[in-house]
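Translate sequence into structure tokens.
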Amino acid sequence: MADPDLVVEIEASGYRAWPARELVEYDGWQLRYADGFSRRANSLLPIGVSSLDVDTKLDHCSRWFDRRGLGLVVRCTPLCEPGIDDELAQRGFTREGETRVMVADLAGGDDHGPKPAERATAGWWDAMARLWSIAPQLRPAWRGIVGRITLPAAYAAIPGADDAIAAGLGVVDGASVGLFEIVVDPARRRRGHGRELTLTLLGWGRSRGAERAYLQVVSGNEPAISLYESLGFRHAYTYWYRRAASADAGE
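Result follows.
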């Protein structure tokens, strides 16, 4: 059973750390839009208490995303309105993108490795775009999300002989540091680079006063889950998406 207070805190921190361009509240639900890059930033979060019926609300939200060139994608977390996931399933919304949120305590640890840059360099942008295979047409939207981050952030990359081996992002929000977009070159995985990158970001977060870390990892990514568990992370809760027919919310 997920800790409701912990879920609220991490969800709020995660949205501040990965900011959408538009955030609109509609009868207790939140609609987020960020030019089509990232499901987290281009989806509906059905939280709060409704005063309107589901048909009215889904129709309004569908039209809101339609006007922005996207179909309706719903992010389902433990905070969602009770019964909404079953309601969406009955309406033919397909389930996808199941993700684990993991947390770790940072008290008593040691800083690790070189300090990451606190500004995004050209090399970091290039490394992330290449390692994540971000399509050229989506890069402006991706850069827009990262460019809107106002919290203290670390832009980490592990250099190789010719190009970066791994890269990622850390964002501190109060006593928490969130780790985002951690990626290792597929040809050079299982050589400790992911561990090195993660420890670097955790050390930076600790130096910035963070007492807890959180991250998201796709539920089926067992190697990554094992790595994070070995670093002290534990499962906090799970979320997933429900996609309407023909919906497209980017990466």
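Note: The chain has seven helices and ten strands.
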